[in-house]
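cron nightly-structures :: item 1 of 1
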Amino acid sequence: MGIANRHGTAIILMSFVIALMLTVMPLPDWAEEIRPQWVVMVLIYWAMALPQRVNVGTAWIMGLLLDVVNDAVLGQHALALAIIVFLTAHLHQRLRVFPQSQQAIVIFVFCVIYSLIVLWIKGITGTAPSVWLIVIPSFTTAIVWPLAFIILRHARRFYRVS
């Protein structure tokens, strides 16, 4: 492994650490409901930009970390993230050429799918939240997507992550 690959891996890992920190950062009750799905967004970006490096296995590991930090049923976020990254990797060539407004719509749909999978698993375990808690974070994630995309793309290009 060359120095460029190690450096690129560090940038990818740092973006995941930041996404996890933003996910668990305490917020007021009203802001908790509109928190963007940071880990989903960062995973989608890297799976779209570098599908050979960030794949379903990466999503599974990040999902298990989310399960642990959220004190959730082990595997619920892992399953949902693995499905979303699979869809992203399958469509990555199309998603890359979409303008950011269309990418934001796709991000919204992917986040709704992610939230529905998590809601389904929570429903099986008897702890299903309100349905509005699916739509609102997905919407805020889609709104934040263009800025997150620009920041992550700049980091990828600046550090020559490939």
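cron nightly-structures :: done
The CA atoms of residues 116 and 134 lie 7 Å apart.
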